[in-house]
Amino acid sequence: MELSKKTRYLHIIIAISMICLAGVGLYMSKTEAFALYPIHKSFGVIVFIFALYRVIVRIKEGWPAPVGVAAKFQLMIAKIVHWGLILMTVIYPLSGMMMSGAGGHGIYVFGIELLASNYDSVTGDAIALNPTIASLGHELHEGLVNVLILFVVVHIAGALKHHLIDKDETITRMFTFK
Predict the structure, then answer these.
(1) Which of 11, 57, 84, 178 is the most exposed, fewest CB within 10 Å of its CB?
(2) pLDDT at residue 96 tops 80
(3) pTM: predicted TM-score of the whole model, two decimal places
């Protein structure tokens, strides 16, 4: 089964964006590089929109059939990883927006206000609009990073296995543009 151009472009855009955002997010959390937060959040919102569109495309086009023959356990792992990645591309940016928006920091895309900030006029501190949602968003955003990394590593390892060991067309199918 040939993959649509839409599917291939969405895969590349979202994969590169998620990996970069995770890397920048880990860097920000270790170094307190506050200047990167607005950029990180802006791209997070954009990736969320692309991810929602990708879910719609996936539902409409269905899952591609495996290229070669694989053991049942490998097919199960592939299905878990693919579903996990699809879910992570939606849940991860959503959790960041929950943390920021409900936490009183607002949601902005390159300076365009989508949800206003809520700062104390005296102290300048953010006043949470909903501390429970902000906390849940924070826990998900920080807690799922290792799951995201695991899914990405297993996905890449599987793709390399197909290419180097099985010598099938799995990678070519994703990265061939006619």
Answers:
(1) 178
(2) yes
(3) 0.90
